[in-house]
Amino acid sequence: MKTYLLPSIKITIILLVILAGLYPLAIAGIGKFTPGHGDGETISYKGKVVGYANIGQKFTKDEYFWSRPSAVDYKADASGGSNKGPSNPDYLKDVEKRIQDFLKRNPGVTRAEIPAELVTASGSGLDPDLSPAGAKVQVLRIAKTRNLTVEQVNKIIDDNTEQPLLGLFGPTKVNVLKLNVALDELKK
Amino acid sequence: MNTEISGIILTYLLTLAIAIPLGRYIARVFKGEKTWLDFMAPVERFIFRFSGIDTKKEMNWKQHMFALLTINALWLFYAFFCLLFQSHLPLNPDGNPNQTPDLAFNTAISFLVNCNLQDYSGESGATYFTQHFVFMFLHFVSAATGIAALIVLFRALKDKVTDKLGNYWEYFVKSITRILLPIAFVIAVILAFNGMPTSYKGKDTLITMQGDTAHISRGPAAALVAIKHLGTNGGGWFGANSAHPLENPNYLTNTVELVAQLIIPMGLVFALGFYLNKKKFAYVIFGVMTIGMLMFMIPTINAELHGNPAIAKMGVSQPTGAMEGKEVRFGPANSAYWSIMTTVTSTGSVNSMHDSAMPVSGLMMMGGMMVNCFYGGCGVGFLNFYIFIIIAVFISGLMVGRTPEFFGRKIEAREMKIASLIALLHPFIILVGTAISSYVLVHMPNADWAVKPSTWLNSPGYHGFSEMLYQYSSSAANNGSGFEGLADNNIFWNVSAGFVMILGRFLPIIGPVAIAGILANKKFIPESAGTLKSDTSTFGIMIFAVILIIAALSFFPSLALGPIAEHFSLK
């Protein structure tokens, strides 16, 4: 037993120092030179931090682009999805209710125009993005609430649309927080 | 072409382009040849001197397994007690509480065995200390344990070797210093520059644009997320794992994490070819694994891109596919790709919520874990595959009426007994576990426990059954992903899954190493005209058939009750 136990203990101690101590400290040191200095990238408006670029936040007011539904109500210290199965009757009722709410608050939009992402919860509950279609379907409402033209709002979406990686790989998306900051900046 | 599809094709090609040279490199490391990371040699010498280890002492297979089991037992106690008292330990800026004993039991085993089933959420159930000194540490050493065990097997497969199979500590330490740590370092730097936090600051609080208060969990995640994928571990920093925008900020990090979780399982197959100088044999195995993976992958991508028929019926459009539980920045095609890669290997990290995937996808994910060797986990993937090779050789031998032999050694009753036991263990622990939990759910729904069995399941009917079947499949395969709707943080699930995980880890390591060790001691028979050629497609088909028959016969009935039934009921 001693043949194995003693080396086991010693090797564990030294590996703890290297792997759990030095390695992450080195990464933290390098992290200081990254855009968010290792604390996470933030977005400011009028000199005040209003959110993290990568973390979705709740937008439910008519004047803002809405984020996707969140199973955790955008609690960024308790991420998670709904974990409801695709055939779950309660879940399907929730989706139907979201569709009806959306139609009620977005006059002029038809059912077939609503992309599924706006009535289904994301995996993390903190999805910061929408597809361009998910943003465009909200343009009428926002233009009306803010007394803007449809073109002005569409332009904000186009300006903030992020193309796939190298133009070739992955989905096209827009960051909801950046859209809404751009909307507020237009106001002044 | 659709950019979502081209994205996953690129990811796969990139993985392959890294895995092949990595395989050659791994073979060189363990053959003791010169490599460009030889500057790590002084670090290794220091570790060995400090620990009083003489790497020149060669071990037989039993001594290897004693060393492996001793150090693993030590880590189990260490991890359990750290978790039990984590609130009193340093680096706890968010003031998170201790884990309960049953949760600590489950979590300690889970990370020890490279499973990383997480019945807690990272934001509230762990501290920065336990994330680094327990979880990340175990990410490294559990992956290294698998690799070291596989290298013992490689060594035993060499011609004219007897019972001297090298030194366990050397294999173990070199797996870390030459493979895991350097690659993890590079990955962590890439992740950090793409917005993953690295600092030790605790939660942030801010007022959002529309005036809500938001608390944002952070922490030094980048270092952990790198090895979590590289070591096919999968236990993430945040509750939502790699669906969380700080744990997987964009498509580039997603690609890096996907590549990382496959290069070692794939690379080790190529390493086998280079190490034994039997490259064609390695390609046959790689071919079988890849065809198996595609068999699970294609239906999953198809199902997710088509979306949920029940939602289509409501009249909204699903332009990208099924979106419940998925993130816009990855999209359904990539989420499907990830969900299969994470289940055919033993990673078990997720970038979408598997519980909300289409029934066909759920079926394929469970299939990946039930077979558990199409690429498989770090080291253990090929160890599992080796069992199927032995069975295939034996059956082929019987078919042509010759004594079966593999790499110049006769396979006889003793080896076959071990192989059969290991092959049957996997379905046994999955199905017995599911049977017991189903029984408890039906017959004791209101048992007076903290969480009543009647409230375990998040979805009724067939899908509820799938949640339980998935949990045990994931535990037995040491995968760690979950149908997370299952209320698993209670004594029944913590303890039962804990036992399934530990059985599913160590016996499937010891079995193949034992077989290889016993075979290495037998007389070497040079190849002759009657030898079964192991590097032909015929042999590949034979292995594939054995895998399919064992997996299909064992699991089809239970799958029919879960995802298959759900698929046909979903309109």
Can you give the helix content of chain B as a percent range? 55-70%
Overall morphology of chain A: elongated
Largest sheet of chain A: 3 strands, antiparallel
Distance between the termini of chain B: 29 Å
Question: What spatial order of strands do you see in the largest sheet of chain A?
Answer: 3-5-4
Q: Compute the number of helices of chain B.
A: 18
Could you give the count of β-strands of chain A? 5
Main β-sheet, spatial strand arrangement of chain B: 1-2
Determine the oligomeric state from the structure: heterodimer
Low-confidence stretches of chain B: none
Rounded radius of gyration of chain A (Å): 22 Å
Structural class of chain A: mainly alpha
Describe this structure in words.
The complex is a heterodimer of chains A (188) and B (571). Chain A is mainly alpha-helical. Chain A has six helices and five strands. In chain A, the strands form two sheets. In chain A, strands 3-5-4 form a three-stranded antiparallel β-sheet. The mean pLDDT of chain A is 92. In chain B, α3 runs antiparallel to α6. The mean pLDDT of chain B is 92. Chain B has 18 helices and four strands. Chain B is mostly helical and 571 residues long. At the A-B interface, α1, β2, α2, β3 and α6 of A face α1, α2, α3, α6 and α7 of B.
Per-chain topology:
The complex is a heterodimer of chains A (188) and B (571).
Chain A: H1 2-31, E1 42-45, E2 48-52, H2 89-105, E3 129-130, H3 132-136, H4 139-146, H5 150-160, E4 161-162, E5 173-175, H6 176-187
Antiparallel strand pairs in A: 1-2, 3-5, 4-5
Helix pairs in contact in A: 4-5, 5-6
Chain B: H1 3-31, H2 41-51, H3 61-84, H4 101-112, H5 122-125, H6 128-157, H7 168-193, E1 204-207, E2 213-216, H8 222-230, H9 251-276, H10 279-306, H11 309-312, H12 331-344, H13 359-371, H14 380-400, E3 405-406, E4 409-410, H15 413-443, H16 461-476, H17 491-520, H18 537-569
Antiparallel strand pairs in B: 1-2, 3-4
Helix pairs in contact in B: 1-9, 1-12, 2-7, 3-4, 3-6, 3-17, 4-17, 6-7, 6-8, 6-9, 6-17, 7-8, 8-9, 9-10, 10-12, 10-13, 10-18, 12-13, 13-16, 13-18, 14-15, 14-17, 14-18, 15-16, 15-17, 15-18, 16-17, 16-18
